[in-house]
């Protein structure tokens, strides 16, 4: 049983639930890209350095990324984007596939003149971040994949869901209302269709084409991305590091942000400058 610290849990929830209101570190920003109004949280006062873009997972939003964002914002400008159809961003008529989501992010980065960036994607967000690095390489200086999906050893929705459920006891229970709010924003139909899109995408075919330095992490209590899967992805990359986040579940960005940041910050220090 995890020894939960209620003060830290309240702080994580405060960070996750703040948008669109500004807080001490972050503010909400909006821009229209290809007819869709996109929302992101950005550091109000940017430290010097390359911006770090955080890419969320399936059926969620920027919200669960904010505990990690707060830690990274001590050293880097941070942007936590809601992809089209999720969080506070507008929704296209149909759910976008991985390449389309990566293109939306690329157009957004050019629109707001933010690139090139360092990118961190969690879960399905790791798939989108990899597509961004593969298809729009000039925009990505370095790449962190946190608990990347989809492991082909679990080729169905049922098996993927089972492994996700196995990890729930290690997640911060305060994340539940955050996830439910995200799911309400996305809608069940978009979430279900995005699940199909995630299963159809093959990150292992994209990674050999990525030329940016890559760090792949999995949580020590991870149930979705196995150590075997991480080793397989590592073998595909010309420039890769791997690491295990101590005590972390799948959503390390929310439940164990300090432990994840301790691995990510030195990597960005080495690689994000260009």
TrEMBL record:
Pfam families, alphabetized: Abhydrolase_1 (PF00561)
InterPro entries: AB_hydrolase_1, AB_hydrolase_fold, AB_hydrolase_sf
AB hydrolase-1 domain segment(s): 51-159
GO biological-process terms attached to the record: acylglycerol catabolic process
Highest taxon, organism lineage: Bacteria
Gene3D superfamilies reported for this sequence: alpha/beta hydrolase
GO molecular function annotation: monoacylglycerol lipase activity
One GO cellular component term noted in the UniProt record for this chain: membrane
Protein's name according to its UniProt entry: Pimeloyl-ACP methyl ester carboxylesterase
Species whose genome carries this gene: Glycomyces artemisiae
Lineage, top ranks: Bacteria, Bacillati, Actinomycetota, Actinomycetes, Glycomycetales
